[in-house]
Amino acid sequence: MSGKKLIIGNWKMNGGIGHVELAKAIIEGVNGVNAKNVDVAICPPFTLLPLIGQVVAHGKVSFGAQDCHTAASGAHTGDISAAMIAEFGAKFVLVGHSERRANHNEASALIAQKARAALDAGLVPVICVGETEAERLSGDAVPIVLSQIAASLPIDCTPEQIVIAYEPVWAIGTGRVASTQDIEEMHKAIRDSLNSKFANAQIIPLLYGGSVNAANAEQILAVNNVDGALVGGASLKAPDFMDIISAAHSIVG
Ligand code: PGA
User: Fold this and answer.
1) Is the predicted pLDDT of residue 253 greater than 90, yes or no?
2) Degrees, nearest 5: CA angle 177-115-26
């Protein structure tokens, strides 16, 4: 995604009605920065989607959900479809986050179906991939992540329809960040593999996620082929999230 950065906040299972104030603070902050080359989105829990949809309508921030079902509707107690998410004006939906892969046994084939359901509902799936610590130590992180991507992309998707987030599992919520060399190596490998699949793969935003914070954002966002960040913990504090957005702004304007 040349020349633009995308910063997505993943609130995970955090936030009640009071967190609408957090969304408002982020919207106000983003409106004030005038960062025309930085796109910002927040992904609150499902319960906040209608409220966040209302406040986001007044600003330049978009929003998304953290998961969706593969079906558009039906007998799936407790699940939420992509169409339900889209109805509130959402733009994105995360699919295949490592916490869902681990906690709900989600495999890449299922992620591809969820991403397809997202596309069918007019949403942009943010397809998440990443190796575990054991996989990193085994030296196979790159082929493992590339095979996750190959199996998690829906058949017939096009580059303008998707976002990919590389999040090393061992870096999520731990305060440990991949080295810029490792991030660069992985993002280049991902880009190369996408280039062999698509004619215009350079437009696919490749986000890095895993303990991105105000202090390390600028360094990470400056890495080749890093088009943005998927931010967990630091997206729950408006000043920290704004610092990450400002870091992106300082790189691309
Ligand atoms: P973190 O989470 O920034 O708290 O490490 C990132 C994510 O899980 O998307």
Assistant:
1) no
2) 55
Is the per-residue pLDDT at 112 higher than 70?
yes
Which residue has 């991949």 as its token pair?
178
d(CA 167, ligand 1 centre) in Å: 8
Q: At what angle do helices 20-33 and 49-56 cross, to 10 degrees?
A: 30
Nearest CA-CA partner of 244 in 7, 58, 3: 7
72 Cα to the center of ligand 1, angstroms = 28
Catalytic residues: 97, 167
Residue 1 has pLDDT above 60, yes or no: no
Angle among Cα 70, 105, 100 to the nearest 5 degrees reads: 70
For the cut 60, the answer to whether the pLDDT of residue 198 exceeds it is yes
Contact 92, 62 (CB under 8 A): yes
Tell how far the Cα of 75 is from the centroid of ligand 1, in angstroms: 32
Which atom from ligand 1 is nearest to the alpha carbon of 174? 5
- Closest residue CA from atom 2 of ligand 1: 232
Q: Residue 129 has which token pair?
A: 């991939």
> What structural domains and CATH numbers belong to the chain?
5-252 (3.20.20.70)
The whole-angstrom separation of Cα 117 and Cα 83 is: 8
| Cβ–Cβ under 8 Å, residues 42 and 29 | no
Nearest CA among 129, 221, 147, 155 for reference residue 184: 221
Enter the pTM of the model.
0.97
Q: Whose CA is nearest to atom 1 of ligand 1?
A: 232
End-to-end C-alpha distance for the chain, whole angstroms:
14
